[in-house]
Amino acid sequence: MGTQDTVGTPPAKMDFAPTYAAQLVVMEQPFTNIVTAKSGTCPTYTAGTNTFAAGNCANNAAVISGVLSDEGVQQQFNSAMAFRRGRWVQETFMCGRFPSEQGGTPVKYPGGTYNSPWPWNSISGKESLPNARVDFQAADVLICANCHSTLNHIAPLFGKFNSMGVYVAATTYQVTTPIPGEPATILADWLPPGETTAWRHMKPATTLPELGDAIAADPGFARCVSTRVWNWAMSRGDVVNDGLTLTDALANQLSAQLVADGYNVKKLIRRIFNDPYFVRF
Fold first, then answer.
1. Rg over CA atoms, the chain
2. Non-local CB neighbours of 194 within 8 Å, separated by 6+ positions
3. Per residue, what are the HEC states of 84-136?
4. pLDDT tens-place string over residues 92-112
5. Would the pTM of this model clear 0.85, i.e. be above it?
């Protein structure tokens, strides 16, 4: 199984990430910790005493960044080239699907229009890298680069977690590339020489902790947290799967209050439960 060989490795715990999220809310800690905390991200909860017990995760301390480095999360969303892990980050913390960046100058191709702010040659493909194993610059049927211009800059940061969610501090990546033989992914499968990982265009992130900091600083993070809490309180569906977003006015109001409260989600919940709309309906 090569880099995917995990014989003898016990399954990752799947309950640490949700338990940690609950602890942040109950103990009124900044919810940005969900993507930035460097310790204590694997707590346990005892129902009988209604208490949390602090605990550190087993993964390599150098990559600990909230739940981004959680073994259970990495195992659950394992996939070729770590793309499911990148999608999980985008949909969970930004409340939207890829493409996530569409502010570039539109360029028409036979298969559609490219409008990402990233330069066309910022990802691997036959134009930027003639011997590329995967052509993300194909433009005859569909413009894959609209999504992959962002995704390819994020995914390598998750590429060294193996199929069991364990971070392997090695030069080789632990995910595979979906071509004949399914070889281990190399950086050139995602990015051409000279390109580095990033959260967004002009927002570099060379390590997982840097990625967590960039996510926490993104205005979309507060908006997403506010949207998810509002939808939960109002018994609405999922913001991503069901497309149930908030109006700009409401989302801006809630997210501004959340930031002012130091990302205290318990206060956000209390505020929403006391909102005239909730009380009335």
1. 20
2. none
3. HHHHHHHHHHCCCCCCCCCCCCCEEECCEEECCCCCHHHCCCCCCCCCCCCCC
4. 999 999 999 999 999 999 999
5. yes
